[in-house]
Structure formats: structure tokens, C-alpha cells
Amino acid sequence: MMSQAFFARHAGKLVLGIPILWIILFMLVPYGVLLTYSFWLKKYPLFVPAFQFGNYWTLLSDPQYIKVLLRTLKIAALVSAASLLLAYPFAYYLVFRLKNTTMRLILFMAVIAPLWISYLLRAYVWKTILGTEGILNSFLMSIGMIDEPSGIFLYNQFAMVLTLTYIFIPFMVMPIYTALEKIPPSFSEASADLGMSDFQTFLKVTLPLSMPGVVAGFTMTFCLSFGDFIAPFLVGGPDGQMVANVMASQFGSALNWPLGSALAVVMLIIVLSIISLSDWFEQSGKVEL
Amino acid sequence: MSGIIELRNISKHFGSVIGIDHVDLSVEDGEFLTLLGPSGCGKSTLLRMIGGFEEPTTGSIFLSGQDVTDLPPQKRDVNMMFQDYALFPHMTVGQNIAYGLKMKGVGKADALQKAKAALELVGLPDKIDQMPHQMSGGQRQRIALARAIVREPKVLLLDEPLSALDANLREQMQVELKHIHDKLGITFIMVTHDQREALVMSDRVIVMERGRIAQDGSPQDLYEHPKTTYVANFIGTTNFMPARITARNGIETHLEIAGQSLLARYDRVPDTENIQIGIRPEKAHILDAESTTKSNVLVGRVAEHIYHGSSLRTTIKLTDGIEFHIDAMLPLGMARADVSGIGAEVRIGIEPENVFLFEREG
Amino acid sequence: MSNAALNHSTVPRKLRRSRAARARLAADSGFVVIISIVMAFLYVPIAILVIFSFNDNRSLTWPPSGFTLNWYEKLFNNDQLLVAIGNSFYVAGCSTALTLLVGVPAAMALHRYRFPGKTVFRRLLLLPIALPGIVTGISMLNMFKMFGFNLSLETVIVGHATALLAVVVTQVFARLQRLPKSLAEASSDLGANPFQTFIHVTLPNIRTALLGAGLLSFVLSFDEIPVTFFLTGRDNTLPMYIYSTMRRGVTPEINAVGTLIVFTSLILITISVVFTARDWTGRK
Question: What is the CATH number of domain A55-284?
């Protein structure tokens, strides 16, 4: 009874205080420490406090880092594009063409469900499929399409794009589906009534109105695949390394925390910029409509 | 300090927008008061302030002599019936009604008995174990009422209580709410945008306009003596016409309208020469052709008849194009064929007491 | 314009109709193909994972050679694996409890209060949705090291709770937004203080959202690698154990673990769907 009175009196402060405290302790402070570390010096076998931009300079001047960064951006862009190409028609069909609502719900849930199924296993299964001794090779051999196992499927960028698309496509379907669902059917009916063909209606009405969903989906898949290091490790091979793998190795075998922290700061900045860009995109889109 | 509710110098600012502008109001114990006005006039904000859901920017609120301005809703001895009823969807009807008693610390058996009595009062004695979503709109409205009155508040606040009901049910509930008010004897303060509802139900009506009180009076007072064109326009229908004062003699005012003269006997006479006058469509009548009355007559031509079922609305064009509407009850056996034909010249008779005088607004 | 009009008038009406119908049919079958591709893309790999967990050959090659439960038997005799499963339950349970404890007040603050810095507050709360786990993992690792904390399952729990906070906040916030504001007002009008209002009115009405968010964050935590990778000490969680096994190559044992995880996840999804559906029918 007393604790209840206590809660009652301090409810407002607790409601706001707990999350703010958490954010400060476990987000702001860690990011601050991350930033601090990124200026430190590596003096084997330890790191010493310093304030210098050497780590950032290394990232900028050493072509291997730029190369990895560009590759990562390229793969993230390809993954987002591939997800969009599959997800948009899928969501469109579900919302506008499928009249059976139960079926619609089932198909939608079927796309979301893999999110609940281990991410690691979903990456792993492609390794077992694409490998030289894997299921795809043996399948193709068993139907006589190839004579000996081929190494072309695994350990390359195609395998990575395929695997990452597989992992992150639900993040593309969800926002697009939500955006399409919000468009009143009367809009496309009005458009048809005004003499537009189905395709014109799609271009002039449906697509612009669903852009917020597309932008949100693109942002999520891009950022998440940009920072992934499990898929490259499993299916990427030697030239499939991404920024996150390089980053992880700085905290492992390379043992250069300051450089790794600088990389993490760069990744944080890139992700924040993409989020801000997508916010801006969404807002300017709203004004336009 | 006699009223059960006293509002003193209440203002409410939303950013740079002024929602309530220096309102003073005293509510008598036991009266049925209605705050009437269009949306955005501040009536709901005022009601929510009395309930404790909004804080005034300036001013104080007193409930039976006690300053409650800074008290949260749960510490005020008033209860509210919400526009959307706000019945708790996860509780039965009985639990909904007993909720306020439970919070008060009333024992279970006692609470059950009171809840039953409240349901009896609103005419739903057998619904205690049902869920709100099983109820019709009208039943939910009654449950919301029962939940609010079971705590025996000093004042019951009703926020657009009937707006979600269809027309027939609304009329029935207007009367029923009034009966419940009489039975309970507590103060009701209602907010509505429906002037007919306000007239039917209230002892006293406050007409609000842009955060201020436009007029405060009994329904009859508001209908028969509106202070401004705003009030005359909002309550009932009025023919407005520009007019000029030609002579003043106490409360008798001689007017000139579209080249015709008219006498008015109204308790508020504007100081200016050019004014606006208002005449209710049912307070004017078309004179028989045989009638020889010369005084207080306007002459015009019939432009249109519109059939309203119980009445007939005739539009008459005065000499300079002003349209004048007249509502006449259709007497028994009178057919539409009996009324004057379109284009016919008619004379409109008007009693001097039925001419409202207003200041002309820029 | 006149051309089009002419066209319209010369083409018989019936034909026009059927042409439109044919176009629609073509579009529809195109969509059916897309649906099938997406579904096959999503579920054939999972089927393969499951099928090969029962295959009696150590190498994963097509076609499967025979049925065995051998790999499952091995799992249950693998002590390291069982310990890892236990650790994962501990981590997922604690981090779910923590995210709910922090996330529900955060969602309520976003929903109800206006305060300076709210935009920043919201941004930070929701950041981990799009922020790769590795950044959270590394920044926390740095912090724990700088302040001299040893890495353990508890540091993993804190990391997971932070990364999953956004999941809980978005789900609970969305539900709160759908709850009419008048319910809480009515409760305080009827004499309840804010705490009582939360217990008696708000909580029962967001119950299913809490359950859904809790289940989802449990599953995601159970499955988490990037944060765990940096924040765990000597203890392994299940995914970390699988991950280290994968370094040594593919084995049907992993398929067997995977199959168990898939079915557990399916059960949890079903639970969450059933509860959400019940909530829908309960209210109109």
C-alpha cells in the first residue's frame, strides 16, 4: 500500500526517468567512449589515450579500407534493390489484387515469420546449398546439368547479395505493405473513373502514395545489410569482406581497438545520415503530395 | 460566492492561440446549464477545465467554495460523461460502473448494490454482466451515465452526450436525461453544438463565441431576446435585414427598411443610425387579402414555397431584392393550392415586439 | 484525343472488354508467379534445413540418402550445446524482462508527455532498429572495458536489452496510440490516481501488445549474434556455439539444432498470432 502511494506520487518521474537513464547509460555513454577510443593511439600491445586523427587518416588514406567501404555500400545497395524488386509486387498483389482476406493475412504472416527464425541459421542454410559439395551442386549433377561440382556459387558477392536479400526481405515487405494498405481503394477507383489505365493509375497514384513505405524499407534493408558480418563470414569468401568484418577483426586478431572504434564511428555516422536522409525524403514527399 | 461552480477570469492559451478569453461564470447548485457554440468556440475546453483535464493559463476554478484549480481530476467531486463514452472495454458493465466506487474504497457488496441501482435508474437493470462491445450505442450511453452518477458527484459534466446517437434516439434521450437530472437534483453542465438540444434540455444556456461568453440566459430569453446577430443566427433561424432608425421614442423605434417603414418595440436599441434587424420566420405572417391593417406591414412578392411537412416556408422578395422567409403552420385541411401563387403581391404583418435590433457589424 | 475516341468507337465493345480482361489475367498470373517465387525463396531453404537434419549421411548432398534421428541423438549428448541452450534461455529471459521494464515506460512517455528534447529521445530510442548490432556491441564493449567491467552473460543481457528496446517501444507505442485518450481520462475522473489508471485500465488494454513484444524480443535475443559476439565472456550462448561450430564446416548436427529452433519459433509465432487475433475479436 505504501509502495503504491510512492508509485502514484512519482509515476511521472519514473515513466520518464527510467528510459532516459537507460539511454544515457547504455547509449550516450558508450557512443561517447567509442568516439574517445577512436582518437587513441595503438602502442603495441596496448592503447594509450591521445587526441589525434591518425585512425581516421588511416581509413581515408589506405586504399584497402576505401575499397571495403565501397564494396559494402555496393552490396547493401544491391540487396535493397533486389528486396524491393521482389517485395513491391508481392505487397501490391496482397493489398490490391487478393480479395480473400484470410489468404492475405496468411501470406503476409508467411513473409514476416522468417524474422522469428534464427538469422544465423538462415545465413548458414545458404552455405549448405551453395557450397562446392553443397545441395545445389549435387542437385545439378544428379539431373545431369553439370558433370563436376562448380565453385561459382559460393564465396562471392552474388552469394552475399542472395543471402542478405533472403535475410532482410521481410523488412522491405512490412513497410511497403503498410503503406499500400493505407491507400483508400476509392483513390484508384477515382483514377479509373477519370479514364486512367491500371498502369497509369499505378504510376500516378499508387506508387507516389506508397513511397514512404519504399523509403522506410530501403533504409532498413540498406542499413542492416551494410552492417552485417555474419553472412560475409559464412558465404562471402576472400573478396566478400565487408566493413563489419574488418571492424570485428580489429577487436580480434588485429587487436587495434582505436582503429576499429574509428570504423564504428564512421558506420554510425553513415547510418545516421541515411536515416536523416530518409526522414527528409519522407517529409518533402508529404509536402509534394 | 454562491454558485456550486465558480469560474473566475479563466483564460487558456494554446501556444499563440487563445482558446478561452477571460471567462467568468457562476453555476447555481442544481441547475442544468448548457455551454452552446460551434466547434472551436472553447466550450469543450471550459468543460474539461472543470473536470480537471485541462489547466487554465490564468484564473481560478471553485467547486462549492473550494479552490480546485490545481487539483487533478481524481480529487474533484465532479464526474464526466465522455463523448465517446470511454467505457473500459475489458470490464463488464457492472465492473465499469463499480470502478469509481472501488476507487473510493466502497466495499464490494455495497458497490454492487449501488451499481444495480444506477443501472435501474438508466433503465438497463439486466445488463450488469454484459461487455460494453455487446451493447448498442444508446445502451452504452446509458451505461456511461450510470458510471458517472453512481459516485454521486456534486456536478455531472456531459460532453456532447447525445452526438453519437441517431435522431430518434437523441430526442428520446434529451427528455430522459432531463428527467434524470430532476430526479437526482445535482448540477448538470452539458456541452453541445446543437441549439435545439440546448433549448429543450437546459435551465440556462451559455452561448460561446471564440472563447468568450456571447450571451447567458434562459432558453426563452436567448430565443426571444438575442443580444447579437451571432446569437440570433446560432439559435433558431432569423431573417436579417439592414435598416435605418428614423425616430426613437423610449423603447419604441421607428425604422426604415427598403423604403418601407416599420415599428419595433425591443429592449435593446443600438446607438447608431444604421442597424441590422432580425425577424424570426414564424413570428411574421402573410395577411389575408381582406385585411386592411396599415401599420407594421412589409410588402413583397412571393418567390417560392417550400414544403416542410408540418409547416410551409414561403420566400418573399421585398422591393430591393431582400429575401424574407415566413414559416406558417399548415392549418388542417389547407392544401398548397390555397396559398398565394408565385409572383403575387403579399403583405407581411409583423408585431413590434418581434423585431430584434442589433448593431450592424463591419 | 480524337484518335483515341475513334478507336474506342470502332472497336466492338465486347472485344474491348475481353482485351481488358485478358490484360488483367496476364497481370494476375504475373503476380501469382511473383508470389510463388517469394514463397519458394523464403521457404525452400528452410525445408532443406529441416530435411537434411534427418539425412543419414554426414555430407549435405542431393538427394538425401536415408532417414535417421542420429543427429538429434548426438545433440542431446552434447553437454556444451546443452549449457549453451541454458545460457541462451537465461540471457533471453532477463533481457526481455529488462526491455519491457524500460520500454513500456519509454513508450508511455512518448505517448503521453511533452517534454524538451523529446525528438532526440525518440530518435535515440528507435535508432537500434536500423543500427547494425555490431555498432551497439562495439561501443558497449569499449565502455565496459574502459570502466573495468568483466565481460559475462550479464553484459550480454544489457547489450541485448539496449538493442531490443526499439522493438518493444514501437509495438507498445503503436498500441497506446490506438487506445482512446478518454479511457485514461475517464479512469482519473472516476477517482483513480495515475498508478491505478495504469494498472486497471492501460495495462489490461495493452496486454497483448506486451505479450507480442515480449515474445518477439525473447526470440530475437535468443537468436542474437552481433552484440553477443563482442559482449560475452567465456560463456557461449546457443547461436555463439553454433557459430563457432560453423567455423569448422557444415554438419547435419547444425541442421538438427536449426530444425528444433525453427519449430520452437513457429510455436511462438502461433501463440502471438492467436493472442493478437483474440484481441481483435474482443473489440470492434
Answer: 1.10.3720.10
